[in-house]
Amino acid sequence: MFNIISNVNLSAMLASVETTVHGAANAIQETASVALTHGASAASEHAAAAEKSMIDPSIILNRHWIASTFESVGGHHFVVVIMSVIVIIFLAVLFYLATRNMAVREISPLQNFVEMIYEALDGYVVNMMGPVGRNFIVLIGSFFIYILLSNLLGLVPGLESPTANLNTTAALALVTFFAIHYYGLKTQDLKYLKHFAGDIWWLAPLMIPIHLIGELARPLSLSIRLFGNIRGEDIALCILFFLGAAANFPFFHLPMMFLACFTSLIQALVFTMLTMAYISGALPHEEHDHEDGEAHGDKEKAHIH
Amino acid sequence: MDLHVWSVIFSSLCIAIGAFGAALAQGRSIVAALEGIARQPQSAGEIRTTMIIGLALIESLAIYCLVISLILLFVRW
Q: In the predicted model, is pLDDT for residue A301 greater than 60?
């Protein structure tokens, strides 16, 4: 159960990483928009073009009504941090209350609930990675809980998904990226670097760039997949809501709401599943069958710690 | 025509073609997974997890198309 306490620490860590990545991703977005507007001053053109079009699409894209409240404080990117902090505080308080008075008998309902979550995550991770996966349940579990809650937060009117912003998902994907190589180097030392060269030594000049590009594509695809799914889902919800409002037909977006709940869960599953697949790809893989899986896992556990 | 109109046309084409390819690929992978499960129901769990990973990887291509079309649509030309 102590893993859950460190879960909370990790979500706090994710938040701090996010704020640092914030600046970098912000700069990338700025350069992209500058490049797309042919080097002209992006901000003034945006403002001029916004008045030209009839419906301002940025209402859908990045300006919730709550966003405009904080606009004067730090721009609309500030909202993502607030939403992320809401999720983190909720998780921290939940797990603190659940683990404060832990008991073996006469378990409180909250502890029971959190234990249920933990057991489900444990089964999920062990099913996917084998018994070695118990070492990574802190990382994977906090990814799963944080992403799921972030995705679902966007379905509450007035709130916004933190994961519907590339900054958050890039931060999460970077944590995954460094975790892969950290555990790879920790468990296999320099043998880990050898697998970049491939099996045949004279193909190494060809294989090393291919592997490097493959490694760099992982955080890119992880972050853009999560961002695109959640943002697309939010935009579809918003468009359907406005369609229903225009046709005087309320709850037109209700079927999409159910679909959005489903995609939120699926995307959290996919992110953690890919993280586990990447990490177990970086670990030393010896042949093991299910009979001595437990002993094997213990051996690797000793290896990691 | 105005550049904005072109961007709307091509953003819709972009997501249409991207979704078309991804849908075909996902259909093929689901067919293969279902055949595998029907033949060996005891390995349904492993097949399902592998299938979901594969579907996610295929779907990311459609999502790239979505991102590109959103850029085309929402960046002011």
A: no
Tokens representing A208?
A: 């090393």
Whether chain B has a CB inside 8 Å of the CB on A273: the answer is: yes
- CA dist A167 and A231 (Å) reads 12
Chain B closest CA to A70's CA: distance in Å?
A: 22
| Arithmetic mean of pLDDT, A140-167 | 91
3-state helix vs strand vs coil in chain B, percent to 5: 90, 0, 10
Residues A131 and A31: their CA atoms lie apart, in Å, by: 45
| A277 part of contact set with chain B, CB < 8 Å | yes
Q: What is the pTM of this model?
A: 0.71
**Rounded to a whole number, what is the largest CA-CA distance in chain A?**
69
Rounded to the nearest angstrom, the minimum Cα separation between B37 and chain A is 18
Could you write out the three-class secondary structure of A50-78? HHHCCCCCHHHHCCCHHHHHHHHHHCCHH
Q: How close, in Å, is residue B20 to chain A by CA atoms?
A: 17
> For chain A, where are the alpha helices, taking DSSP H only?
2-36, 42-52, 58-61, 65-74, 77-100, 109-129, 137-153, 166-188, 191-194, 204-246, 254-282, 293-304
Q: Do B74 and A274 touch (CB under 8 A)?
A: no
A123: contact with B, CB 8 A cutoff? no
Other residues' Cβ atoms within 10 Å of the Cβ of residue B74: 15
Closest alpha carbon within chain A to B59: A225
Q: Which tokens in the block code for residue B26?
A: 């996902």
Of the candidates A127, A224, A269, the beta carbon closest to that of B63 is on: A224
Name the 3-class secondary structure at A155.
coil
The complex's ipTM works out to 0.73
Give A66-92 pLDDT, tens digit per residue. Answer: 444 444 444 456 788 889 999 999 999
Closest chain B residue to the Cα of A273, Cα to Cα: B53
Using DSSP's 3-state secondary structure scheme, residue A49 falls into: helix
Contact A26, A77 (CB under 8 A): yes
Q: How far apart are CA A148 and CA A266, in angstroms?
A: 9
What gap in Å lies between CA A184 and CA A42, rounded to an integer? 43
